[in-house]
């Protein structure tokens, strides 16, 4: 037998994910300055004291970049997990017990997925109010149909396999077959999607804040930071937007890469 | 019959596939000679290098494979040729038939065009000439309405017909060597026999050298002059078929012959009046399925039989005969349209699925596909324990002891318990299925082709196991199969099914010694006995069925076999046939057979 080589993409992805989760928990304490209190002059370029400089309100950019995962990553991860659990459950039911319920669920999913995600998210957040809990619910609501669809289609394949028939012949009830046998064998696509969904969630959270529909300033949040720094880029004040921008890119890349690597591994 | 100079000979042929840092040697210094007019059967376990050899002989061993040695074809080394020269040889002189014929055909082009393209690629014929040739070729391989079929697309052909289209493509340029890689796997027995007969005749007539790669000892015994057995990339036996069957040299060879279905019958297959209590009774079972366009497919009609304690019924038929559906109806995996199923005096077809669950521990099943029948995520221990969890109140220790007992009962060892199904061989997987089925000491089993997906050696082991369990546990079961020799070994009684109906029923002894229905006779004639002295091609009288099995959607008014039956008369086409008893425990659905028996 050959030694299994670790997929470099998976390694990079996992390191980035671990880093983002670490910052979501400890980012605030690691930050050298209070991310919400002005610490010095406005719009200072990067220096030894302020590694990423300060922004137009005199807040330390480095501290804010470190503290932001508490909002961005926490929202995205929670929303992704909620939608995965919900979507997998509904997808399992809709796929295993096909019939009217299944049809209704799928048509609702169709309607939800036919809206542009970003616009729908903006509308929903505006209607429910801009706070972290509402954001999580909106994101979870928007991402649930993805998991419903993925799980349902996998369940539809799995339920035709002989082991399901064998489980029935062994004496399982339909509910037992669905939960003990089919569910476990239908999880792979959702697990892959979970990581990718977190990435999209971060992007969406930041995007909503960027247009002013997400969490309120001065909460440290990447989207807000980019938005507040954006007008000043033409004044050569590049650091306020670039660093949170890089943070978003790297984090989203990490989650997407891990998702891809897991998918590749699962196919083997 | 054979020339002394070989048509093709390999010298030290080696094929390696690099796998990481290791060289995986698939074919190891192999020397093989093929002679014109000789049919050679290449046998071996999967992974022994058979198919790799077949490809290497055509110069098709692919990158990253590393090929060394020589493949001399009429004195030229194929391995030294460039692509263009090879292309000429492949089309003109060497033909290839692969398994899964439908995948080998282009789905967007009709068969006639595909055949004529091959023909035109290697000859100067015009399109029209090639088309005529295509029709001739299709007819020569036994396709009845070749003029019509020539414009059929691959999806319109059955598997057997697609395979014959493929062989006519390979034969279109009159090759000197034909390589057939498991050409009949997946075909029904009567269709397989038809196909092999045609191939054998064509090879004989045109003095073609044929290499048949197969796992089926019956094919080798019946159609091959010479047998070559491979193991780990090496040839371990290379002798004439007759010599081999008289005295195999290697262990694998001996095992193959042991796996043969020649004779060995169930012990108490006599017509003695059965005194043991009735376990299962099925009356007038009927099931149709709706297909596209609102039509109904008739899967089972008027199936009636009973099974007594300690006896076994073989349900025999080709694909689409409804035999599997009968099993599913009894197991309540599908609900019958009408008819009754009685288990030990209780009617079980009309109770709710929930009520039926208490019978599950008494009626168990083993299915055809060994891997697919086991939950791939569960360790074997949990698979076998599941019925105990569902139906018994045993303690953890008692269950674990019972699981170990079951594992040894089916001839496996404890160390497989923590493994997942994927890391077991097909034979082991099927034993696990059997252990699961036996866990709750059921009174009745349905075995749905439990041996047909297994390689020959594992199949023989499985049959031996079933036989010994049958004696030890006094098992009562229905054995569903298309393999008559297996049924003969395992079953006391036989019901032969054709297109949803039971056409003949009786004890194994009765049916095998004097088959009465023309379909049963044809089925028996298509059994390829593992005996080169009793070859199908040598038999003087054969009951051969014409053409293909008709669609079960639009069944004719009269006898369903009439269109294929060699003795059919007008009355057969007009009147639907009833199952008529002609002797104790023996009935047949054919008025001519009934008359002949009186």
In terms of DSSP E residues, the strand content of chain B is 15-25%
Oligomer: heterodimer
Structural class, from secondary structure content of chain A? mainly alpha
Rg of chain A, alpha carbons: 22 Å
The helix fraction of chain A, in percent, is over 70%
What gross morphology of chain B would you assign?
A: globular
Would you count the extended β strands of chain A for me? 0
Shape descriptor of chain A reads: elongated
- Judging by the overall fold, what is the CATH architecture of chain A? Orthogonal Bundle
The low-confidence runs of chain A, each spanning 5 or more residues with pLDDT under 50, are none
CATH level 4 superfamily of chain A: MetI-like
* β-strand amount of chain A: under 5%
Helix content of chain B: 25-40%
Q: What's the CATH class label of the domain at 1-93 and 176-258 in chain B?
A: Alpha Beta
Walk me through what this model shows.
Chain A is mostly helical. Chain A has one domain: MetI-like fold (Orthogonal Bundle). Helix content of chain A is 72%, strand content 0%. Chain A contains 11 helices and no strands. In chain A, helix 5 packs across helix 6 and helix 10 runs antiparallel to helix 11 (239-267). Chain B is an alpha/beta fold. Among the domains of chain B are: 1-93 and 176-258, Rossmann fold, CATH 3.40.50.300; 102-174, no CATH class; 279-362 and 442-505, P-loop containing nucleotide triphosphate hydrolases (Rossmann fold), CATH 3.40.50. Chain B has an 8-stranded mixed β-sheet with strand order 16-17-18-13-19-20-22-21, sandwiched between helices. A 6-stranded mixed β-sheet of chain B has the order 6-7-8-3-9-10, with helices on both faces. In chain B, a hairpin with a 2-residue loop joins strand 9 (226-231) and strand 10 (234-240). In chain B, helix 4 crosses helix 5 and helix 5 (127-140) packs across helix 7. The model of chain B is unreliable at 261-271 (pLDDT under 50). The A-B interface holds A 2, 161-163, 165-174, 181, 184-185 and B 19-22, 331, 333, 353-354, 357, 360-361, 364-365, 367-369, 372-377, 386-387, 390-391, 433, 436.
């Amino acid at each position: 037998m050959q030694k299994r080589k670790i997929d470099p993409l998976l390694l990079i992805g996992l390191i980035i994910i671990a880093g983002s989760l670490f910052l979501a928990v400890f980012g605030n304490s690691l930050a050298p300055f209070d991310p919400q209190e002005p610490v010095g002059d406005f719009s200072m370029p990067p220096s030894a004291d302020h590694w990423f400089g300060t922004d137009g309100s005199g807040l330390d950019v480095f501290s804010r970049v470190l503290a932001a995962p508490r909002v961005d990553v926490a929202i995205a991860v929670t929303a992704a997990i909620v939608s995965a659990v919900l979507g997998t459950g509904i997808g399992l039911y809709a796929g295993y017990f096909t019939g009217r319920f299944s049809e209704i669920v799928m048509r609702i999913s169709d309607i939800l997925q036919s809206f542009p995600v970003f616009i729908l998210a903006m509308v929903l957040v505006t209607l429910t109010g801009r706070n972290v809990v509402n954001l999580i619910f909106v994101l979870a609501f928007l991402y649930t149909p993805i998991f419903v669809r993925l799980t349902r289609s996998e369940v539809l394949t799995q339920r035709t396999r002989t082991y399901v028939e064998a489980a029935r012949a062994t004496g399982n009830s339909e509910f037992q077959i669905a939960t003990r046998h089919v569910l476990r064998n239908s999880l792979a696509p959702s697990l892959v999607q979970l990581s990718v969904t977190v990435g999209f969630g971060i992007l969406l959270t930041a995007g909503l804040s960027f247009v002013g529909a997400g969490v309120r300033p001065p909460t440290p949040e990447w989207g807000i930071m980019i938005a507040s720094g954006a007008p000043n880029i033409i004044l050569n004040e590049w650091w306020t937007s670039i660093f949170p921008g890089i943070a978003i890119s790297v984090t989203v890349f990490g989650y997407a890469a891990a998702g891809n690597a897991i998918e590749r591994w699962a196919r083997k | 019959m054979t020339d002394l100079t070989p048509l093709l000979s390999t010298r030290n042929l080696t094929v390696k596939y690099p796998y990481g840092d290791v060289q995986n040697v698939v074919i190891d210094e192999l020397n093989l000679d093929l002679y014109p007019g000789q049919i050679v059967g290449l046998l071996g376990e999967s992974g022994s290098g058979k198919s790799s050899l077949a490809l290497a002989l055509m110069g098709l061993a692919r990158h990253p494979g590393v090929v060394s040695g020589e493949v001399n074809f009429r004195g030229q080394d194929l391995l030294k040729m460039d692509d263009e020269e090879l292309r000429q040889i492949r089309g003109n002189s060497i033909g290839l038939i692969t398994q899964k014929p439908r995948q080998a055909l282009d789905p967007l082009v009709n068969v006639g065009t595909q055949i004529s393209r091959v023909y035109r690629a290697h000859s100067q014929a015009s399109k029209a000439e090639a088309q005529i040739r295509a029709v001739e070729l299709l007819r020569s391989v036994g396709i009845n309405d070749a003029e019509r079929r020539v414009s059929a697309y691959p999806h319109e052909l059955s598997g057997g017909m697609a395979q014959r289209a493929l062989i006519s493509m390979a034969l279109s340029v009159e090759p000197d060597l034909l390589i057939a890689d498991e050409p009949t796997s997946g075909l029904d027995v009567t269709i397989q026999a038809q196909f092999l007969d045609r191939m054998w005749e064509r090879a004989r007539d045109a003095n073609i050298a044929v290499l048949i790669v197969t796992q089926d000892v019956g094919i080798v015994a019946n159609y091959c002059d010479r047998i070559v057995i491979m193991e780990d990339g090496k040839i371990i036996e290379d002798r004439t078929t007759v010599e081999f069957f008289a005295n195999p040299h290697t262990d694998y060879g001996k095992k193959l012959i042991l796996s043969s279905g020649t004779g060995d019958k169930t012990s108490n297959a006599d017509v003695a009046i059965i005194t043991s209590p009735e376990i299962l009774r099925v009356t007038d079972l009927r099931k149709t399925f709706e297909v596209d366009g609102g039509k109904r497919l008739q899967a089972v009609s008027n199936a009636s039989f009973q099974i007594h304690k300690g006896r076994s019924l073989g349900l025999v038929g080709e694909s689409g005969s409804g035999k599997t559906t009968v099993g599913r109806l009894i197991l309540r995996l599908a609900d019958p349209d009408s008819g009754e199923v009685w288990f030990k005096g209780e009617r079980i077809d009309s109770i709710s699925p929930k009520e039926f669950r208490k019978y599950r521990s008494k009626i168990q099943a083993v299915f055809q596909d060994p891997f697919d029948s086991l939950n791939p995520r569960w360790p074997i221990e949990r698979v076998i324990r599941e019925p105990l969890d569902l139906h018994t109140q045993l303690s953890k220790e008692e269950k674990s002891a019972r699981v170990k007992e079951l594992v040894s009962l089916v001839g496996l060892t404890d160390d497989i318990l923590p493994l997942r199904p994927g890391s077991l061989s097909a034979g082991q997987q099927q034993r696990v299925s059997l252990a699961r089925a036996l866990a709750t000491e059921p009174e009745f089993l349905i075995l749905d082709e439990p041996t047909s997906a297994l390689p020959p050696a594992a199949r023989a082991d499985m049959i031996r196991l079933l036989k010994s369990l049958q004696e030890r546990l006094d098992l009562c079961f229905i054995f569903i199969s298309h393999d008559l020799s297996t049924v003969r070994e395992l079953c006391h009684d036989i019901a032969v099914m054709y297109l949803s109906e039971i056409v003949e029923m009786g004890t194994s002894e009765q049916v095998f010694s004097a088959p009465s229905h023309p379909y049963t006779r044809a089925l028996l004639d298509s059994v390829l006995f593992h005996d080169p002295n009793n070859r199908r091609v040598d038999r003087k009288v054969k009951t051969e069925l014409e053409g293909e099995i008709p669609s079960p959607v639009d069944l004719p008014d009269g006898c369903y076999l009439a269109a294929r039956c060699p003795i059919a008369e007008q009355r057969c086409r007009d009147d639907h046939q009833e199952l008529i008893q002609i002797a104790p425990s023996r009935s047949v659905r054919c008025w001519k057979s009934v008359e002949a028996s009186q």
